[in-house]
Specification:
Length: 455
């Protein structure tokens, strides 16, 4: 469709006015205070556009799209990092990590966000969790085709004996989300309670039949399997196998107690949700929206291990994690897994079908969300891209066809707001500014999508 070196030319992002705020009344969009001087709340990290084969003009157009998203007023802070050909071409933050929520006083103390500010990445956690499971498959500790009950005795109860690890990774296990009482933080972090709850759950469909996103339950299943086959918790395995050899500061499940105050606070923003949308969200997420945001700021959540939801990272580090995958499991001389393992992660398991939990069509690999020609999180013509969304308006991905590894972080948690399209336009802008590379330069690709030729 588009050849090597193609750049999808989009017009420069104009400054579009947001919905005005009415004086004397509360803001129904629950927006933050917008500084008059945006440069005063902007921080730029170390960047090398030329080293990544991109022009300063292209990088500026990407940042213009990011600033337009920030102008919507529902994200106290926005952080973006784009790597191309392994070089950081953009690494910037705008706004405040703390102190500029919708209900914070305008004259109160505010903590600026910088490229070094860590964020909770919510469901973006699912991709590293899946990667660990595939790594253990490569090393012979488990098989993706194993039945879950082989590693968690008792899980076969109530007709769940046919569910495999592969079903869980692909969100096709047919298991329900955890019951609301399981979201009490003390219970979420109670190992024995979670195992008992998983074993007592009753399937809602035959495994493999439907795509139905496992918001939390799948992560706990995979986390327990990792624990049982290694004798270590997820945090230790991730640190020992990937983070420490490659010198990561963050990007693990939770943080040390002394680091909780460094993590960007999450704020409930955007229009309040009403039935039936609020009910659908509660069913998909496992608990009401306001409860989820409150929970994610709790020190117990920030220091615990929640395998589907509580990795803490920066856009720079998370994009670097995806750079490992884009390069076929090797980075800076450290080989984590073989390219074949990464290809197994990104091999299509669901072909753009409607997800019964999320309610929109999605292509899934074995633990990651895949791109597509048209309906794609990563923009048009991105059938080789893969990554994961995080709640809400957070996205990290790699696009081997464009030599990209990217991450977008936000700490506003809106569901609906008039400028929502700007979030997806930012991903499209990143894609549109990065030329394609020759197919032979792509270390990994979805075998079912077919690697493009060199012509």
């Amino acid at each position: 469709m588009f050849g090597i070196g193609t750049v999808l030319q989009l017009p420069a992002v104009p400054h579009l006015p947001s919905v005005p705020r009415l004086p004397g009344v509360g803001d129904p969009l629950r927006r933050v205070h917008m500084p008059d001087d945006l440069e005063s709340v902007t921080t730029i990290g170390v960047e090398d556009a030329a080293g990544g084969g991109m022009s300063e003009r292209s990088v500026q157009r990407i940042w213009d799209a990011a600033v337009e998203l920030y102008r919507s007023g529902v994200h106290p802070a926005l952080q973006v990092c784009v790597r191309r050909e392994g070089e950081v071409v953009l690494d910037r933050a705008i706004g405040h990590a703390r102190g500029n929520g919708p209900n914070d006083p305008t004259d109160g103390a505010k903590e600026p966000a910088t490229p070094a500010t860590p964020f909770v990445i919510y469901s973006g956690t699912k991709a590293p969790t899946a990667f660990l499971v595939h790594m253990l498959h490569e090393r012979g500790a488990l098989e993706i085709s194993d039945r879950v009950s082989r590693h968690i005795p008792g899980y076969e109860r109530h007709g769940k004996d046919e569910i495999t690890i592969g079903h869980v990774l692909a969100h096709r296990a047919g298991v329900p989300n955890l019951p609301s009482e399981a979201f009490d933080l003390d219970r979420v972090l109670d190992h024995e309670f979670m195992v008992h709850t998983l074993c007592e759950a009753r399937p809602i469909a035959k495994p493999g039949r439907f795509l139905a996103y496992h918001a939390v339950s799948g992560g706990h299943i995979l986390g327990e399997i990792v624990n049982r086959v290694t004798g270590k918790d997820m945090r230790t395995v991730l640190a020992e196998e990937i983070l420490e050899p490659l010198g990561f500061r963050w990007t693990n499940y939770g943080v040390a107690p002394e680091d909780t105050a460094k993590v960007a606070l999450n704020y409930l923003t955007g229009t309040p949700t009403l039935p039936p949308l609020s009910q659908l969200l509660s069913r998909a997420l496992g608990l009401p929206l306001d409860s989820l945001v409150e929970l994610s700021n709790d020190d117990r959540f920030l220091t615990g291990i929640v395998p589907a939801a509580n990795i803490v990272s920066t856009a720079n580090e998370l994009s670097r994690f995806y750079e490992i995958l884009r390069r076929g499991g090797e980075l800076d001389g450290v080989r984590v897994v073989a390219p074949e393992t990464v290809r197994r992660v990104i091999t299509q398991q669901s072909h753009l079908e409607v997800d019964l939990s999320l309610g929109f069509p999605t292509r899934f690999g074995s633990g990651v969300m895949l791109g597509a020609q048209v309906l794609s999180l990563y923009g048009l013509d991105t059938q080789h891209a893969f990554g994961h969304l995080g709640f809400t308006n957070m996205l990290a991905w790699a696009d081997p066809e464009r030599a990209l590894a990217c991450a977008v972080m936000t700490n506003g948690k809106p569901i609906l707001y008039p400028e929502l399209a700007r979030f997806y336009l930012l991903a499209q802008r990143i894609t549109s500014e990065a030329p394609k590379v020759r197919g032979s330069e792509m270390v990994v690709w979805d075998p079912l999508a077919a690697r493009p030729g060199d012509q």
